[in-house]
Amino acid sequence: MSEFHRYWMEFFFVVLMILGIVIALASPSAVISYVIIFLVGMAAGRLIYIRKHNIQLPYFLIIAGFVVGYLIGAYYGSRRLIIILFIIGSMLSYKLYDRKILKDVRC
Hints:
Elements: H1 4-26, H2 30-50, H3 57-73, H4 79-98
Helix pairs in contact: 1-3, 2-3, 2-4
């Protein structure tokens, strides 16, 4: 456990990849898969906006881990459309936070 600080990125990459597989396998239709990945893209855009001044590679890799896992587990729907919806969701969320249309409320 003392080495966790050195390998936290790899750990969360694998955990989110497995979570992505499970969520993708649990979605019963292509439409639900598309909605889920769009919302995940929105959450990723928020994370990137929050960390925009000090974004680091590990955060991108962890996000990519979930997307890779989701693509592995996606039984319904087009993989290309899943990637496109994820990118659109993350860009839309980032722009909405950047223009102060959506507000980040932290305690």
